[in-house]
Design a protein that fits this description.
Blueprint: H1 3-31, E1 47-50, E2 65-67, E3 71-74, H2 83-98, H3 100-109, H4 116-128
Parallel strand pairs: 1-3
Antiparallel strand pairs: 2-3
Helix pairs in contact: 1-2, 2-3, 2-4
Length: 132
């Protein structure tokens, strides 16, 4: 790879990291307004990755974001993703920080539309989307 291409790639990577960090901080600021849990969401170790291929899997095609234990996977680059989606997925991480086994059990036993943790993440977005 030539040096100018390396610089562009490095610049793109730096911009992606900066976008992800900013998006997570904005989402945290929103969730910090809520009192769902005793402790605020912790960003330490939380990663935001764009992985379009993940969303090609049959059961995941309907999603644009997915939260794992400390990782948020996005279908599109952070710059093209709404703050609402990042806040929603970060809320799932917050839930897992406080009730990991309950969140996992609900995921196993409840339909998506009735999962209390999914409903709570939607509520978090609704409660914080119109505040500045």
């Amino acid at each position: 790879m030539n040096r100018s291409r390396e610089a562009r790639v490095d610049g793109d990577a730096d911009r992606a990291v900066s976008d992800a960090t900013s998006a997570l901080r904005r989402a945290k600021a929103r969730l910090d307004r809520l009192d769902f849990y005793a402790e605020p969401v912790r960003l330490r170790g939380v990663r935001l990755w764009t992985v379009p291929s993940f969303f090609r899997l049959p059961k995941l095609r309907r999603y644009d974001g997915y939260a794992l234990r400390r990782t948020i996977l996005l279908r599109r680059p952070v710059a093209e993703t709404s703050d609402d989606l990042v806040a929603h997925e970060l809320c799932h991480i917050w839930q897992q920080q406080h009730h990991p086994w309950r969140v996992f059990w609900a995921w196993l036993t409840k339909p998506y539309s009735e999962n209390p943790y999914e409903l709570e993440a939607r509520r978090a977005v609704e409660l914080t989307s119109h505040q500045t």
